[in-house]
Design brief:
The complex is a heterotrimer. By secondary structure, chain A is an alpha+beta fold. Chain A is 28% helix and 29% strand. Chain B is mostly beta strands. In chain B, strands 2-1-7-5-6 form a five-stranded mixed β-sheet, covered by helices on one side. Chain C has three domains: 183 residues, 3-Layer(bba) Sandwich (FAD/NAD(P)-binding domain); 143 residues, FAD/NAD(P)-binding domain (3-Layer(bba) Sandwich); 67 residues, BFD-like [2Fe-2S]-binding domain (Arc Repressor Mutant, subunit A, Orthogonal Bundle), CATH 1.10.10.1100. In chain C, strands 1, 2, 3, 4, 5, 6 and 19 form a seven-stranded mixed β-sheet that branches. In chain C, strands 8-15-9-10-11 form a five-stranded parallel β-sheet. Chain C has a three-stranded antiparallel β-sheet with strand order 12-13-14, with no helix packed on it. The chains are: A alpha+beta, B mainly beta, C alpha/beta. Chains B and C meet through α1 and β4 of B and β8 and α4 of C.
Chain lengths: 370, 105, 470
């Protein structure tokens, strides 16, 4: 089998692997990305595309801040990708909304956001009343139970497949080799790393594991048990409607093509990927209460995807224990964090330090030495 | 249930009453008796579309039937008094036509 | 009483489904049959109980169809017409009927959704007035002939026995047919058939084909061979057909253009259920992997009729019978010996037919050139994805049709890839240099057919809450 030598090998070419490769291009290193998905390992392809930073991670303030940083890097990244590839990436940076269905829920969310604002020191958003919600999305007739929404101006939504396609189209243009390979084994060898694939052996001085759930097996040479698990999401896709949602609604998000994606369930069910009508119907019921017009619209597809979930929900950016030149990147928020990954992580992956906000995101928090 | 020669029902297509054989699909009746040139306008580009298969495969026979839009009319039997309309491309409130792309704030 | 548990659920009321239900009932099973249409018959025997439809069937088919439907109606199957199956989850089947969805279960499920015309895109095929030949045949059988004239005649284009049948039906109906544009070489091939030993094993079929061929040839209908580069043109409706032959480019005025490139199995449900599939190199299509009794890679699901492999209506009837008997055997309602005894004659007859028809699949194999369409051709009608879009994605390195789907939206619309799947695979194969079976087949997701959200979310038997819509 042919052997190929490179400076940096990236295992995984989903949104995360491609974003890292894109960010590293231009560093003068020879980079190869090896990618092939399996049904259980393609989170980038089952994504809604929300760039979502609001109303979360009160207990992980740095991670919340990291999301805001990424959101602010996004417009520049998208412009750059579009200019480089000539591909159009549908995207909106007009904020995001979480509708609430009662006064109690309105208060509860408001209190959470107030605490978040206090902890972070800055938070561009808050609760809005029903009238204001109606004014923001005049094309939607919200259900009578909707009392208002949580709103944050730093959220957004992007066509995730267009983003991935643009990243992948950009890589060869920036001198990065992107190869469709089934990765069979990853091992350290002579101070570097050796990746055996179905078509050639690849050697590199630096290894970056960005293979989502597959990191659980590829990192085993250094980590007996990676604290990352498959988190099942189930989604219903409703037929195309006129485009009325320039500001995305969490849980019932209209895509740029006009279809509406329903679902927000998280479930730890191993690698099971079957749809459970009963489960996903709960989200459908919620969506019909929020946006009653959906009731008569047709579900044209349902699908599941396995998210990549670190045990404490926070991203992992880390060197592997005992390996100065082997990195591991795992995050549940590949889309939201893509701009941070492309623009803020490269210095770390080239041997430097993590940006200050992300310092706490190594494997050390799980008790590993690295 | 099934049609015999001579047995007919009336359906109203785009406001006009049409006599059609009993037991046939709405799509067949609209093609063969009210002679509509197209069934609906495509939501992406407004192009005029009409059935290809008449057996539930192509989803090109969408009509508004008794007030329900986007019904696969080849799968629905005609019934006396049924109100059938061909469909225009849906418009966005406050905008001209459909935007398939997001714009930048 | 509304029964929700059965021994066997049959899906589809064509020859295979009806025969399966009859055979399973004969063995004593509790059987439900779900079918989309209003009356039993499927495509071949569509509306067979109506004199109108009977007119277009030959004597043998009419008798077979009427007999089968009568046996079915008398046999005690719980028949549920107007029922669109949209999900199968283990042994549970969810279907929509008159705007309400229900869920029933059975120990065994027999799929008999039948075949469909192979959709072959070409420039202008989305214009109204351009249809599949099968669609036109349904119109004729519904006494719903569109308005045609000498100035706006029918043009036929394609290859395969169904086109021949349709040509005869059009002649019978007195419709003006301007030409038959042959993309294969249907009539000449048919003429060569009697010289093939296997075809002689199926004399009835052969005689019928020759009779139809004589009818068409003697009608004076112009038959133009080796037609390529077909185009439909017009403003909001087909007005003109353009094509090339070895001699040059031609135009014909047309009010309708009917295309036919053979019948392929409907694979949507087996695909969504993850059943093993086989690529047929000659007929260039996927079909579920089954044995002669319709057993699949999933023990409690079998497939009968043209949806297993296209052998035609008479074979479908036999396949349905075998599948129905085999379901009873599997459920231990009849012994192995009784199953063998009940199946023996049918098995013999089906083996003979399959042997004879095996040659037909070569005779009427689609010409690979029919998919060599120009870049501007719409491939995915739902999402308006062009051949050029697909080729661009292949150039970017995407060769798996499911990857191409994600990045181009080809196959993402309401028809779920039914209309574009075969062409997408052919185009991806052409552009990448891979054989079609290596570019994979489009994965199908439930619901098999679009179902309103409130129906999906308030299905019976799942303990769903009442819906909360205003």
């Amino acid at each position: 089998m042919a052997t190929h030598a490179q400076d940096i090998l990236i295992v995984g070419g989903g949104i995360t692997g491609a974003a890292l490769a894109y960010g590293l291009a231009g560093s003068g290193r020879r980079i190869t990305v090896l990618d092939r998905q399996t049904p259980t390992n393609r989170a980038s392809r089952t994504n809604v595309g929300l760039i979502w930073v609001q109303s979360k991670f009160l207990h992980l303030p740095d991670y919340a801040r990291w999301g805001f940083l990424s959101s602010r890097e996004y417009p520049a990244l998208v412009s750059e990708l579009e200019a480089l590839t000539g591909l159009r990436i549908p995207v909106q940076f007009r904020g995001g909304l979480i509708p609430v269905l009662s006064e109690a829920e309105y208060r509860q969310r408001g209190e959470y956001i107030d605490k978040l604002r206090e902890v972070l020191g800055e938070y561009r958003g808050g609760m809005i009343e029903r009238a204001e919600l109606d004014a923001l999305l005049p094309g939607i007739r919200f259900g009578r139970e909707v009392t208002g929404a949580a709103w944050c101006e730093e959220d957004g939504v992007i066509d995730p497949l267009a983003l991935l396609r643009a990243f992948r189209a950009a890589l060869p243009r920036k001198g990065v080799e992107l190869l469709d390979r089934d990765v069979l084994d990853v091992q350290p060898q002579d101070g570097g790393y050796r990746v055996v694939t179905d078509n050639g052996i690849y050697e590199g001085g630096t290894l970056i594991l960005a293979a989502g759930l597959a990191n659980r097996r590829f990192a085993r040479f250094a980590l007996p048990s990676l604290p990352v698990y498959p988190d099942l999401g189930q989604v219903l896709l409703v037929e195309r409607m006129p485009y009325v949602m320039p500001i995305p609604v969490l849980g019932a998000t209209q895509s740029f093509g006009g279809t509406v994606i329903l679902g927000f369930r998280h479930e730890n069910a191993g690698h099971r990927m079957t749809i459970e009508q009963k489960g996903v119907s709960g989200e459908g019921q919620w969506a019909m209460r929020v946006w009653p017009e959906l009731a008569g619209k047709r579900v044209i597809r349902a699908w599941t995807g396995l998210r990549v979930m670190p045990n404490d929900s926070m991203a992992i950016y880390s060197r592997l224990p005992g390996h100065a030149n082997a990195y591991l990147v795992n995050t549940h928020s590949a889309v939201t964090m893509a701009a941070a990954h492309a623009r803020l992580l490269p210095p770390f992956l080239l041997g430097g330090n993590l940006p200050e906000t992300a310092r706490g995101m190594t494997l050390q928090r799980f008790g590993f030495t690295c | 249930m099934s049609n015999t020669p001579g047995k007919t029902v009336h359906i109203i297509v785009n406001g006009t009453s049409v006599e059609v054989p009993e037991g046939v699909s709405v799509a067949a009746a609209v093609l063969g008796h009210s002679h509509e040139r197209h069934f609906y306008e495509h939501s992406l580009d407004g192009s005029k579309r009409a059935p290809w298969c008449l057996m539930g495969v192509c989803f090109e026979c969408m009509l508004e039937i008794d007030g329900r839009p986007n019904v696969q009319s080849c799968m629905v039997q005609v019934a006396e008094g049924m109100v059938v309309n061909t469909q225009k491309r849906p418009a966005v409130p406050g905008e001209n036509g459909l935007s398939d792309q997001g714009d930048r704030a | 009483m509304n029964i929700t548990n059965f021994d066997c659920i049959v899906i589809g009321a064509g020859p295979a489904g009806l025969a399966a239900a009859c055979a399973a009932r004969d063995c004593g099973l509790e059987v439900a049959l779900l079918d989309e249409q209003a009356a039993p018959g499927g495509q071949l025997f569509r509306n067979v109980e109506s004199p109108l439809a009977q007119r277009l069937l030959d004597e043998k088919d009419r008798r077979t169809g009427l007999d089968l439907v009568a046996r079915f109606r008398a046999g005690g199957t719980d028949y549920r017409p107007h029922s669109t199956v949209w999900a199968i989850d283990g042994t549970a089947v969810s279907y929509s009927r008159n705007g309400v969805s229900e869920r029933i279960t059975a120990s065994h499920i027999i799929l008999a959704p039948g075949g469909m015309e192979r959709p072959v895109p070409f420039p202008g095929w989305t214009l109204p007035g351009v249809m599949g030949a099968g669609g036109m045949d349904i119109l004729l059988r519904s006494d719903c002939l569109p308005r045609l004239s000498r100035q706006e005649p029918v043009v036929l284009c394609g290859n395969g026995p169904l086109l021949l049948l349709l040509a005869c039906h059009l002649l019978d109906a007195g419709a003006p047919v301007a030409a038959w544009l042959d993309t294969g070489d249907t009539l000449r091939r048919l003429a060569a058939l009697p010289h093939m030993p296997a075809a002689l094993g199926d004399r009835a079929y052969l005689a019928k084909g020759l009779r139809m061929a004589r009818r068409v040839l003697s009608s004076g209908m112009p038959i133009i061979r080796n037609v390529r580069s077909l185009r439909a043109e017009g403003d909001g409706h087909v007005e003109q057909v353009r094509y090339t032959t070895s001699k040059g480019e031609y135009r014909l005025p047309a009010g309708m253009l009917l295309r036919h490139e053979g019948i392929i199995p409907r694979t949507h449900i087996p695909n969504a259920l993850g059943l093993a599939m086989t690529w047929d190199e000659v007929q260039r299509c996927w079909h579920p992997t089954t044995d002669i009794r319709g057993r699949t890679s999933c023990e409690h699901i079998s497939i009968a009729g043209d949806s297993a492999y296209v052998h035609g209506g008479d074979a479908s009837l036999l396949k349905g019978t075998l599948a129905g008997i085999d379901a009873a055997r599997r459920l231990h309602v009849i012994s192995e010996a009784e199953a063998d005894h009940r199946s023996a004659g049918t098995l013999r007859e089906l083996r003979r037919l399959e042997w004879a028809r095996g040659f037909l699949r070569h005779i009427f194999a689609p010409h690979p050139d029919i998919f060599a369409v120009p870049d501007e051709t719409i491939i995915c009608r739902c999402e308006n994805v062009s051949a050029g879009d697909i080729r661009a994605a292949v150039r970017e390195g995407f060769t798996n049709v499911n990857e191409i789907k994600r990045f181009t939206r080809c196959g993402m619309g309401p028809c779920q890839g039914r209309m574009c799947g075969p062409a997408l695979a052919e185009l991806a194969a052409q552009a990448s240099g891979l054989p079609p079976r290596q570019v994979d087949m489009l994965h199908v997701r439930m619901p098999f057919r679009p179902v309103p959200l409130n129906e999906y979310c308030t299905l019976n038997g799942l303990g769903y809450e009442e819906n909360h819509t205003a």
